[in-house]
Design a protein that fits this description.
CATH topology of the largest domain in chain A: Rossmann fold
Number of domains of chain A: 2
Strand content of chain B: 15-25%
CATH architecture of the largest domain in chain A: 3-Layer(aba) Sandwich
Number of strands of chain A: 5
CATH class of the largest domain in chain A: Alpha Beta
Number of helices of chain A: 11
Number of helices of chain B: 13
Oligomer: heterodimer
Strand order of the largest sheet of chain A: 2-1-3-4-5
Largest interface: A-B, 35 and 33 residues
Number of domains of chain B: 1
Largest sheet of chain A: 5 strands, parallel
Strand order of the largest sheet of chain B: 3-2-6-7-8-9-1-10
């Protein structure tokens, strides 16, 4: 039996829910894995675990400590979802000053946050599952790979590739701000296949050509501000430099 | 031309003719949806008579984007493998354009030539091709650079000549499809057909004149342009999305993927289209041979205009212009060729 734990840092806990969304497959998984720690689904939780799945990103000093403890008490650490893998939505705080951000609280803010960073900023991470929430197929791929002692690797291509494989009509042609060309594949182009442009929830991939994407969008008549917003939404942390460059244009 | 093999069909009889084909064959014909493509039709009224080529080529009928090879399962006495190759029905494809028929010839060389692909072969055999002359070209068309609109191999070829379709017979199978509704074509009809083809080809020439006639010479010119600064310029704007590869009627690369259940007691092997524009394409255990994007952009052009000439003495491009139409970055293959050959 391989023991696993699903841990939450600052996030919407959507990835924990996605774990439960495995439904029938979860029962299969439980034949090989023993869930030792899962706050959303279990009352009694313990450490250490063989594989720790961490969702969210630390935004307080306590959470950083929690993350370090999880790392110490696990053999394999998996960044579950975009927040953990790239900083994701919490990373948006970094676009403004802390004081400005804290104004969302009516009275005194509960605490001053630390900068949201991807978790591999603090600790070494073995695997990353991108997506908001992550893709169930990819999780199953990872789980199978661990049992069979095979390697697991993330796609190094864009959502466009998977979208083209499904022979969809291109949303860029329709004038939509689609993040497909710079977003990592693995979701089987779920949104574009259903007529909604890609928001880039899986974050950028290694070979992405941002300048070409921006040029294409601008040629379509999309404003710089709209592009900055789209780029910042899920990937402010990894795309900081690109966004800074875009602001200068 | 032998007039015995040229017929004409009154236009109002085309539906009757198509329905008689549907009774005998699995018929694919152009259907306009979000994108126009060849789809299986069960009634002649579903067919759309488009003025020129469809957005998608014939490729996915014979070589689908994702295809399962076989399934395997662990039984008491070893593994049991079940082939997913199913016998394919007799197919007839109606309304194919010259560029697509040529592309199919090229795809056949790759998939049924020195290496034979059983999955492709099964789908490809017993396929009847009924082609049609374009009414006018698309802005991206340049088939005249590869020998014009009418290919060498077809079963029947339709050309709109007003109240009739002029029907040329290209094979014995095609001849068998000719029934009593068809009339003998007159000299006048053939003349009208020729005029029509000339007119459209002239139209194409007017918008794109590329001289690729001397295959060996032109491909040599492209081959020696490895260091051309244009590749780097193209790499700046290329998004590496692979759409030009997937849409290309002659691109045939695929990746083989194994999937298993959790304990490895059953699984499947499948293939999925692959694209030479992707970072992972030329990645091996030791080295990635085309890490830089400009090398990948160049490779696609070479794989259409250089390598096939070396192997088969033909270009692997038919001038359909689909890659130009689909490219989100607006890369035009004709501009590349003009730059290289000029």
């Amino acid at each position: 039996m391989i023991s696993i734990g699903i841990f939450s840092l600052s996030c919407c806990e959507g990835c924990s829910v996605q774990f439960l969304n495995l439904e029938g497959k979860l029962l299969e998984v439980l034949k090989y894995y023993n869930i030792e720690n899962f706050r959303l689904a279990k009352e009694l939780n313990s450490l250490p675990v063989d594989i720790a799945f961490v969702e969210g990103t630390p935004t307080t000093a306590e959470e950083v400590k929690k993350l370090l403890k999880i790392r110490r008490d696990s053999n394999v650490l998996v960044a579950l979802g975009t927040c953990a893998a790239t900083g994701g939505v919490p990373g948006l705080v970094n676009t403004m000053s802390k004081r400005e951000a804290m104004k969302v609280y009516d009275s005194n803010p509960p605490y001053m946050p630390v900068d949201p960073k991807p978790i591999d900023y603090y600790v070494p991470v073995e695997h990353k599952l991108y997506g908001c929430p992550f893709s169930k197929d990819e999780l199953m791929e990872l789980i199978t790979a661990v049992i069979m002692n095979k390697s697991f690797k993330n796609r190094e291509s864009s959502v466009c590739v998977e979208c083209a494989l499904r022979e969809n009509a291109c949303l860029l042609d329709k004038g939509e701000l689609c993040m497909g060309p710079v977003t990592r594949a693995g979701c089987r182009a779920l949104c574009p296949s259903n007529g909604a442009p890609c928001r880039g929830c899986r974050g950028p991939y290694e070979d992405a050509n941002y300048k070409a994407h921006i040029r294409t969008l601008m040629d379509m008549g999309i404003t710089r501000e709209e592009i900055i917003e789209a780029y910042s939404m899920f990937s402010y942390e990894p795309l900081k430099e690109v966004i800074a460059w875009l602001k200068e244009q | 031309m032998m007039t015995n093999y040229v017929f004409k069909l009154p236009k109002n009889r085309i539906y009757e003719f198509l329905n008689s084909l549907i009774a005998e064959y699995t018929v694919y014909a152009p259907v306009e949806g979000e994108t126009s493509r060849f789809e299986r039709i069960t009634d002649a009224c579903e067919v759309q008579f488009l003025p020129n080529r469809t957005d998608r080529s014939l490729k996915s009928i014979f070589f689908p984007p994702e295809e399962e090879f076989f399934k395997w399962k662990k039984e008491k006495d070893g593994y049991v493998v079940t082939d997913s190759l199913k016998p394919s029905p007799k197919k007839l494809i109606f309304g194919v354009r010259g560029c697509d028929v040529r592309a199919l010839d090229i795809l056949d060389r790759y998939m049924m030539g020195e290496f034979s692909d059983p999955y492709y072969k099964e789908r490809r055999k017993n396929t009847v091709i009924i082609g049609m002359t374009c009414d006018y070209p698309r802005s991206s068309c340049f088939c005249t650079a590869f020998g014009g609109m009418i290919p060498h191999h077809y079963d029947l070829w339709f050309t709109d000549i007003g109240a009739y379709y002029l029907v040329e017979v290209g094979s014995d199978t095609g001849m068998k499809l000719i029934d009593s509704q068809f009339q003998k074509a007159t000299e006048q009809d053939i003349k009208r057909k020729n005029q029509r083809i000339e007119k459209v080809e002239l139209e194409i020439e007017k918008q794109t004149k590329i001289n690729l006639c001397e295959t060996k010479h032109c491909s040599q010119k492209i081959k020696t342009s490895v260091e051309h600064p244009m590749w780097k310029e193209l790499a700046e704007i290329c998004l590496a999305c692979g759409k030009c590869n997937f849409i290309c009627p002659t691109c045939h690369c695929f990746d083989v993927i194994d999937t298993t259940n959790l304990d490895g007691s059953e699984g499947a092997r499948m293939r999925r289209w692959d694209s030479c524009h992707l970072y992972e394409y030329a990645k091996t255990s030791a080295e990635n041979f085309r890490k830089e994007r400009h090398a990948r952009v160049r490779y696609r052009v070479f794989d259409k205009f250089v390598f096939p000439v070396m192997r088969y003495s033909t270009y692997a491009c038919t001038g359909c212009g689909r890659c130009t139409d689909i490219c989100p970055a607006g890369i035009d293959i004709r501009e590349i060729l003009r730059e290289m050959i000029a």
